[in-house]
Automatic annotation (TrEMBL):
This is INSC protein. Coiled coil: none annotated. GO terms for molecular function: cytoskeletal anchor activity. Transmembrane segments: none annotated.
Amino acid sequence: SPPLPSSVHLIQVDSVQRWMEDLKLMTDCECMCILQSKPISIEKDEQNELILSSQYSTCDNLQLLLKRAWIVSTELTRIAQKLEKNRWQRVHSMTVRVNCHVRSMIHEYSTFTRSSSEEMHQLEKLLVDKCSEFTAFTERCLQTEDEEILRSMKSCVNETLVTVAQYFGQLIELVLTQEAQNLLRQIEFSGSLYVTESAISSLFSLAQEGAHLCRIIAKEGGVIALFKICRQDCFRCLYPQTLRTLASICCVEEGMHQLEKVDGILCLTDILTDTSHSEATHAEAAAVIAQITSPHLTFTQHLTSFLENMEEIVTALVKLCQEASSGEVFLLASAALANITFFDTMACEIVLQLNAVKILLAACSDKRIVDTPYSRDQVVTILANMSVLDQCASEFIQGNGVQLLMEMLFEKSSSGNPAEAAACERVQQKSAVTLARLSRDPGVADAAIKLRCIPRLIKLCRSPTERNNSDSVLVACLAALRSLAVLSPDGLEDSDFQQLVKPRLVDSFLLCTNMEESFV
C-alpha cells in the first residue's frame, strides 16, 4: 500500500467511518485546547485511571496510539503546507492542536504501559518542550505583520517543525519497540498457554500495521521466538496462529534473515510433512512458504536451504491441494506451489511428476474448492509455468485442460472490485499464455480449434471491454492466436488474418489498442 512517517501505517477504511472514529480524538483535542492542556484536578485520580486502563486490551490501546499518531503526522504535513503559503493563522491553530494531541497521546500511553524507560521519559520531555516552543513561535508570528521579520521567523518555524517531527517519529518507534519487546517476553517466558496465545494474537495485530512494524518485531527477535513455539509439542494448538504471524513478519528482509538463522525452512518442512498435524496447521505453513517464495521479493538468500527441501515441500503442497476441504486451504497451498514453479524447470518437473496437472484440473471442476478468481489465478500460474515442459501437453489433453483454458478466457469480475478485476485479467492473460505455449503440440492445438478458441481470442483482441482494457491480456491473446493460426489458417476471416496475424506483433498490438469498439 502506498508515504506517511515510516512508523505509522494508514489503516484503509471508509472515509466516513474514519471520521467517526477520529471524532472522539478530535473533540478531546478541542477540549484540551480550551483547558490549555492542564488537568482539571491537581490530585491524581487513580480510580479514573484504572477505569481507562482496564477498559481496553493492549491491542486496543496500541490501535488508539497508532490512530493518534496518524492524526499528529497528518497535522504536521498540513502545517508544512500552510507554512509554505504563509497562512500564519492556520499554522498557529494547527500547532496548538498538534501540541494537545501529543500531550494526549503521551498521557494515554502512560495509563496503559507497565513501565517506561528513562530514554522514553527524556524523549517525551524533549517532544513536549519542543511542541510548546513551536506554539510560542507561531503565536509570535501572528503578532507581527512585518514581512522581513516573518521571513526570518519562517526558517526558525520550519526548523522547529522538522525537529518536532523527528522527536515524534523517534518516540513512536521507541513505544512500538517497547511493546514488541513486552509481547516477545511473554511469548518466550510465560509458559502459560493462555498468556502465550494472547501475546501472539497481539503480535499478529501489530504486524498487520505494515512493513515498518514487521521490521521492528523481526529486529527484536520475533521470528526466532515464534519458531521456538513451532518446535514445542505442548503449543501444537497455537501452531496455526503462530504460523500466520510468521507469514506476516516474513514479508520484510529482517524477518527473512532470522528465518534463515533459525533454520526455519527445515521446521516448515517438518510441519508440512507431519501427517499428525491439523489441516489448519498445514495451510498456515503453506502460507509462510507462499510468503517467503514470493516472486516480488528482491532478497533471496534463504532460497539455498529451500532448494534442499524443495521436493518434500512440493510433495506436501500437492497433497494439500488434493485433500483441501475448503477454498481457503486450496488457495494457500496453490499460491505456495505457484511461487515455487517460478524458480526453475526442476521445480516444474517435480510438480509434473507428482501428477499435479490432473489434481489441479480436477480441483477446478469443484466449485466448492476453486471458488474465486484468486484461486483460478494460482492454478493457471502453475499451468503456465509448467507448459514450458514438453511432457505437459499429454497430461493436459487427458485432464480436459484445454476446456478449462477456454473457460478461463471468459473470466470476468462479478463484483467490480478492483482487486478481483485485476485477478480476472491475470487469469485471462495466463490462460492465453498457456495456450500459446502448448499449441506447439498438435493435439492441444486441435482441441483448442475444436473448442472454438480462435473466435474467443479474436474477440478479446478486438474488444477492449472483454479484456478490461488490459494490454497484457491483448499481447498474450495475439501470441496465442498466432500459434493456432499456423495450424488452422482457414479458421480466420481474411481481415483478422491481415490485421492480427500477418503484421509484426507490435503493429497488431498498436492497431488493437487504438481500435474503437464496435457495438453493431
